[in-house]
Amino acid sequence: MRASILGGAGYVGGELARLLLGHPVLDLVQATSRRHTGKPLHTAHPNLRGTGDLAFTDPARLERVDVLFSALPHGEFAARLGELSERAALLVDLSPDFRLHDPAAARRHYGPGAVDRAAGAPAFVPGLPELYRDRLRTADRIAVPGCMATAAILALRPLADAGLVDGDVLVDARTGSSGSGNTPGPAGHHPERASTLRVYGPVGHRHEPEIAQHAGVRARMTVTAVPAVRGVQVVAQVRPGRAAGRAEVWDAYRKAYAGEPFVRLVAQRQGLHRLPEPRMLLGSNHCDIGFDLDEDRIVAVSALDNLVKGAAGGAVQSANLAAGLPERSGLTFPGLHPM
Amino acid sequence: MRASILGGAGYVGGELARLLLGHPVLDLVQATSRRHTGKPLHTAHPNLRGTGDLAFTDPARLERVDVLFSALPHGEFAARLGELSERAALLVDLSPDFRLHDPAAARRHYGPGAVDRAAGAPAFVPGLPELYRDRLRTADRIAVPGCMATAAILALRPLADAGLVDGDVLVDARTGSSGSGNTPGPAGHHPERASTLRVYGPVGHRHEPEIAQHAGVRARMTVTAVPAVRGVQVVAQVRPGRAAGRAEVWDAYRKAYAGEPFVRLVAQRQGLHRLPEPRMLLGSNHCDIGFDLDEDRIVAVSALDNLVKGAAGGAVQSANLAAGLPERSGLTFPGLHPM
Amino acid sequence: MRASILGGAGYVGGELARLLLGHPVLDLVQATSRRHTGKPLHTAHPNLRGTGDLAFTDPARLERVDVLFSALPHGEFAARLGELSERAALLVDLSPDFRLHDPAAARRHYGPGAVDRAAGAPAFVPGLPELYRDRLRTADRIAVPGCMATAAILALRPLADAGLVDGDVLVDARTGSSGSGNTPGPAGHHPERASTLRVYGPVGHRHEPEIAQHAGVRARMTVTAVPAVRGVQVVAQVRPGRAAGRAEVWDAYRKAYAGEPFVRLVAQRQGLHRLPEPRMLLGSNHCDIGFDLDEDRIVAVSALDNLVKGAAGGAVQSANLAAGLPERSGLTFPGLHPM
Amino acid sequence: MRASILGGAGYVGGELARLLLGHPVLDLVQATSRRHTGKPLHTAHPNLRGTGDLAFTDPARLERVDVLFSALPHGEFAARLGELSERAALLVDLSPDFRLHDPAAARRHYGPGAVDRAAGAPAFVPGLPELYRDRLRTADRIAVPGCMATAAILALRPLADAGLVDGDVLVDARTGSSGSGNTPGPAGHHPERASTLRVYGPVGHRHEPEIAQHAGVRARMTVTAVPAVRGVQVVAQVRPGRAAGRAEVWDAYRKAYAGEPFVRLVAQRQGLHRLPEPRMLLGSNHCDIGFDLDEDRIVAVSALDNLVKGAAGGAVQSANLAAGLPERSGLTFPGLHPM
C-alpha cells in the first residue's frame, strides 16, 4: 500500500516518516517539503540516515496514494481538502482543522475561519482507536486529536463512563518543547527553555473543548512547559462525587482498556515507576494510565510521547484500522529504559 | 555575632554556610559533620573553595554562639534540644521537628514520636517573616517551614485573608532533586531521575498540615519530581466562591506583600516570564508569586529555591530579625538569568 | 531459537531483553535476577510493560538454550564459564572478562585475577562485526568490547589501515550515566550528576588497551561524564604524519564501511547535524562516524548508544552472525529526532 | 562612581547589570536598548525584578559616566569609538573588536574590516587581571577576551612560562548555549540544542589567536556545544617535552596564581570534585584550574561561567583595577552547590 506525507519536514512529519519507513505494509512513496524539495529526508531528520533514498517532494507534485497523512500547519489542510480528496482514498489529518464539532469553541480557539471547518468536522472520524475503533475501520477521513487532549481523554473517559466524575476536572498538563514545532522563536530558545517550568497556559487552553467532546467532562487545563523535548504528562484531579474505592477505579479502567494494544495501566502502590511518566515512552505508541486516590478525589495520571501516540503514532494506528491492517503494524517499539 | 551550623555537610548545611560566609554581621565559627570532622568545608561544598580556612567540627564540640542553625535530620534536633538550648541564645531549626502544632497531623506524617514534639512546637516561632515578622523580632527559637509549604503558604494566605478561598485548594507542587538530600538512593539515581516527571506524592503529602496551619486553607497536594536540582514551583487551583476580578486579586497580594523584601509579584499578561518559575531564583532568597484567573477559578503560582527561601535563606532572614539586624543582611543575591 | 540473559536486571540486561523480545527469531526464554526472581521483567524495566508474561529466573535455574547472553559484573562470567559452556551452544559475554589479550594490560586495569582471563581471551571472538565478521560467523564464544572502546575503534581503525595515524591519538570520550550501571552511589546521585562535566578519567582509562588491540593505535583517553543518561561520543585527534586531504579520509572510511548495516558516515561541511552525536542514536544500533581536518590533523568523531551498539545491540548483531541469521534481525530501530 | 552599559538587553548586558546593581561603588545609571527603550530592566532580565526602577535608555541618549561597558555586537563598538571616548573616562569593551593584535588573524576570523581594528588593539589593555594587572591599574581602554580563550589562557600560560609546553596544544572546549546570545535561531532551538553534543567547531576556532597572543602557545581548538545554558570548560592536552612531575606543575600554577582572588587550583587525586567543572561556578567570577598528568602529557582543565569570568565579571574586575577600587568589589558571589 502506498502512503505519503504532506508536510514532511516538521517534527510530526519526521515521526510519520520514521514509522512508515519501518511499516511492514504501508510504503512511504512521497514526503513533501517546499524548502527541502529534492533533498534526502535525512536533511531534516538525521535519525533517518541510511533508511533509503527517498527525497522530499514539491507539495505540488503529490501522486495518488492509498493513504495520505497531512502534517500541514493549522488551516492549510482544510484549504486544500477538495484537491487532496482526489489524491488518496484515505486522508489522515494531524492538524486541528477538523477536530472540533462545536462552532463556538472552534471560533474561540482558532478564529472565525474555524467555524466552517467545525461544520465539516463530523465527516472525520477522530483518530482515537480506543474510543472509535469501529468507525475507524470504515473511515475515509480521520482527524487525529491533539497530544495533550489524547492523554487527558484516555485518562478521563473511563471515569466518566463509570459515573466517577462530578463537576469540572482540573487537568494539569506538562509538555516538552517538540510540541511547538521546529520553527525557532523566543519561547523555544534554549537558554530560556532548557530549565523552565513555564506555566504558559494557566487558563483556557484550546485542548479543553476536545476533552469535552470526547470524554464528556469539562476540563479546566493548566499547561506547563517542562525541561523535556518529547513527552506529555497529564495529572487530572477528579471529584467522584461519591465514595469510590481503588477497586472500582481499577475496574473502570480495565473494562475500558482490556485488550487495548497501546494502553497500559500503571498504578503501583510504591516504587519508582508507580505512576505513568513519558520518559520510558519516547518513541513508543503507548499511552500509560494510572491513578491514586483518597477519600473524595481521584488523581489520574497519563503519559505519552506527543509525537507518537499524540500525533504520528495515533495516525498510523488509525490508518492501520481503516486500511484493514493489524493495528500494531509499524508500532511495536516499546520505548527505552533508562532514559 | 557568632553563628554555627549543626549538620553542616548536607545540602541545607552547605547553603547555610554559603550565606553565613557572606554575611556582614553573623560570623560562621563552626559547622559540624561527624563524617568530615577536621576537613575543610569545601570537601563537601566545592563552591566554597577559597572562602577561608574553616574546617568541619565534631558535633560533640559545639562552642557557645549567638545563633545556632540546625540542619539535622528529622528527630535529632528535638532529641538534643535541652543541651543545645545552652549553646546559643537563638536556635533556628530547619527540620520538621517543631513545625506542626496539631498532634494528630504530626503523628500521621511523622510517627508517634512526633506527638510530643507537636506539644513543644508553639515555643518555636515559624520562620516565615512575611507572616510572623513581629514575633520573630523577639524570638529565641525558630522553626523554619518546609520548602513546598513555604511556597504554597505565601501564595495562598493573602487569598484566604481576602476571602477568596472557598473549599479545598488543589496544590500541584514540582520539586528538584536537592530537596531529598545528599544521600544516594534509587529515587535519586541519575538514570532514573534525570528526565523524570515522577508523581511520587499523588495524595496525602506531609506539607499539607503546614499549609493548613499557616494559610488557614485545606490544601490537597500532588507532588511531582521534575528534571531540576534546585527549585520548587507551586500551582494552586483556588475556587474563590464568588466573582473575583484581576484587580481584587492583585489588591490582595499587594496588601499582603507591599514592602516585603523577598516577595515579588509576577503576573504579566504575556511574555516568557509572565508567571513565576524557579530557574531565575536559584541562589536567591526571593519567593515569586503570580496568578491568572478565569470566571470561577484563580490559578496562583509561586516559585522559590528550596535550599534558600525554602530553607537556609528563610532561616537567615528570620535570624536577622531575631538578632535585630537588617532583614536583607547576607541575602542580596538576586538570581541569574539566563539559567 | 532459544536465548537467555544472565544478569537480566541491570541496564544492559534490560536492553538485551528489549531487543530479544522484539527479535524475529531469537526467543527470550529466561532472564535471571537473584533479587527479582519470580517478578515480571517490567519490575526492573518499566518500558517492557505489556510485552508478555516473562518473569525473572533464579540464576541457578538456567535452562539450556541456543544463545546465552551474559551481562554479569566483571569476573562473574569467567568464574562460571565451565558450567555455562554446557548451557548454550553460543556464549556472548558483555563484561570485560575476556576482552583483553595482553596480560600486562589486563593486570593493570582489572587486577591480578585478570591475567588468567587474558590467557583465555583468544577463544572469544570480539563482538565487533565490522572488524571480525567472518570469525563471528563461526564463533561459539563472543566477547563484546566496551562502549567507549567500540566508538573509538570504529573511528580509528580505518585511519590506521590507511596509514593516516602517526604517533599517539588523543581520544576525548564523553559518556552518559547509564554506563555506570543501576547501583546508586555518590557519583551518580542526581544533584551531583545532572549538570556535570566531570573529567573523571583524565589519564589511563581501561579502554585504552582495547583500542590498541583492535585499532592498532595507541590511544590516550580522557573521559568526561556529561549531562546525559545514554550515549557515548568520541572525539579523536589524529596526526596523519603527512598531507591528507578530505577525499583521502573519506575514501578510508568508505572503503572500511561500505555496506556496513550499522555504520553511517556523517561528515557534512555545515548544518546542525554535520558531525555525529548520540542523541539521535538512542535505542539504535548505529555507530555514526565523521571527521573534519586541517593541514596536519584529523578530528574524527563517533557516537553510539552505549547500551545498544556499545553493548546489547553489538551483542545481538554478533549473535545474529554466529547463528546464521540476517545481521539486522531485531535491530532495525533507527533512533528518534528530535531528542 | 557612575557606570553605564551600552547594549544592555543581551545576556552579557544583563550580567553586567546584575553585577553593577550589586556593586558597592559603581552605580549603574544607564543601560541602553533600542528595542526596550523606556521599559524596566527586568523586561529583559527577570532576575532583576525588585532591584530598582532603572529603565532601558535609547542608545542615542548616553550620558557622560566614569565607566562605560560596551556589550555591543561585533563591529559596533569600534564604529562608535570616537564618540564613546567622549562619554567616559574608562571604556570597557566586551566584543572581539579590539582583542586581536595580529592583522592576519583578525582578517581570517573577522573579515577584512577587522584589520584596521587590529591596528587599534594595542591601545586596549586586555581585561585579564591575572596577566595584566599592572597595566590595568592605569588603563583607560580595556578589551575583555573571549570566554573560551580566557579559560584556555589561564590554564596554559603558567605551563608555558614554566617551559612545560612543547609544540601545539590540543584544546577541547565545551560550552553552554548562553554564549551564543539571545537571538533565536536553528542552532539554539531547544529540541535541537537540549541534549546535544554538537562538535560545531572541530577545527580553526576564532579564539585560537587570542590564546596564542596571551599564552604564547599554539592552541588547536575543538569546540562542542554541551547540554548547559551557562559555563565553559576547557580540557587542554599538553606535551611538556620532558619529564615533568606533579609537584612541578603544581609549582607552576601556584607561582602564577598565589594570591589571585578569582583563580582556584582544583586538582585532587580523587573524589567527585577532583577537577574543575562549571556547574558550581555559575554566577561566580572564579576560574577554577586543575590538572592530571602521566609520563609525557599534562591534562589541564579549567572552568568558568562564560557570562561572568568570561565576560561581565572579568570586565568588572578589570574596571575595579582601573578605577582604583578593591578588585573583588561586586564580585563576591561564590557559586552554588549542588547545581
Question: Largest interface by residue count?
Answer: A-B, 42 and 42 residues
Binned, the helix content of chain A reads 25-40%
- Going by helix content, strand content and strand pairing, the class of chain A is alpha/beta
Q: How would you characterize the largest beta sheet of chain A?
A: 7 strands, mixed
Helices and strands of chain A, in order, run as EHEEHHEHHEHEHEHEHEEHEEEH
Strand content of chain A: 15-25%
Question: What is the domain total for the residues of chain A?
Answer: 2
Separation of the first and last Cα atoms of chain A: 34 Å
Number of helices of chain A: 11
Report on the structure:
Chains A, B, C, D: It catalyses: N-acetyl-L-glutamate 5-semialdehyde + phosphate + NADP(+) = N-acetyl-L-glutamyl 5-phosphate + NADPH + H(+). Chains A, B, C, D: One of its GO terms (molecular function) is NADP+ binding. Chains A, B, C, D: Belongs to the NAGSA dehydrogenase family. Type 1 subfamily. Four copies of one chain form a homotetramer. With 339 residues, the first copy, chain A, is α/β, with parallel strands linked by helices. Chain A folds into two domains: 2-145 and 309-322, 3-Layer(aba) Sandwich (Rossmann fold); 147-304, Dihydrodipicolinate Reductase, domain 2. Helix content of chain A is 29%, strand content 21%. Chain A has eleven helices and 13 strands. Chain A has a seven-stranded mixed beta sheet. In chain A, strands 2-1-3-4-6-5 form a six-stranded parallel beta sheet, covered by helices on one side. In chain A, a hairpin with a 2-residue loop joins strand 12 and strand 13. In chain A, helix 1 crosses helix 11 (308-322), helix 4 packs antiparallel against helix 5 (114-120) and helix 6 runs parallel beside helix 11. Chain A starts with a strand and ends in a 17-residue tail after the last helix. The mean pLDDT of chain A is 97.
